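Hi V.,

Quick status before I head out on leave. The structure for the redesign project is tokenized and pasted below; the design run finished overnight.
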């Protein structure tokens, strides 16, 4: 099974993925935890370029191509081999993030980027969208570390990203489950994550 976690900065994806991995491993599943961008040696180089605040990219399509390149290698080197041997793969971000950040945040046409998106030949079986208000998400992001290139974008950028994530969820209700995390503890969010994942596993 392939499960992706999505959401804006500070939504708590990494924390919930770690908890879910431990939970699933307790039942004897092999679980692979991964992330984008940067899960491969090649991807790590791209991650530095994409997130470094010193990077000056003037063409958002070029930025998108870098994310797609990272994803293709991520699939080939990490995700597909794990799925082929029967593991559950948990990834922090996948294609939905590119649509949200590049089409929503950067305001690129989704139709114009579809040929690039069509290169991604696998899709998550389940996507958990952790939804939070951008003010709260950015507050958490600032509290944990220095802000990266995307986190430093203006507030309207983050509002567009969040709105696009919600739009993706509306279009893909069979795959994407939205969990609002505002005002909830980590434990409370995880209880909701477990319910969604358990239901999907039992159905399979």
């Amino acid at each position: 099974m392939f499960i992706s976690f999505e959401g804006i900065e500070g939504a708590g994806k990494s924390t919930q993925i770690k908890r879910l991995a431990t939970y699933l491993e307790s039942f004897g599943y092999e679980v692979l935890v991964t992330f984008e961008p940067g899960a491969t040696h090649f991807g790590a180089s791209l991650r530095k370029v994409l997130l470094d605040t010193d990077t000056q990219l003037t063409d958002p399509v070029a930025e998108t191509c870098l994310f797609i390149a990272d994803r293709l290698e991520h699939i080939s080197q990490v995700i597909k081999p794990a799925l082929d041997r029967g593991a559950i793969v948990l990834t922090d971000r996948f294609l939905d993030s590119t649509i949200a950040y590049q089409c929503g945040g950067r305001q690129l046409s989704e139709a114009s980027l579809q040929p690039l998106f069509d290169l991604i030949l696998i899709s998550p079986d389940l996507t958990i969208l952790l939804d939070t208000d951008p003010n709260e998400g950015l507050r958490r992001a600032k509290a944990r570390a220095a802000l990266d290139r995307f986190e430093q974008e203006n507030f309207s950028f983050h509002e567009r990203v969040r709105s696009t994530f919600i739009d993706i969820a509306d279009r893909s209700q069979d795959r994407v489950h939205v969990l609002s995390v505002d005002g909830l503890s980590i434990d409370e969010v995880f209880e909701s994550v477990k319910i969604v994942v358990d239901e999907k596993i039992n159905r399979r």
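Above is the designed sequence. Residues 10 and 139 are 7 Å apart (CA to CA).

G. will cover questions while I'm gone.

Best,
W.
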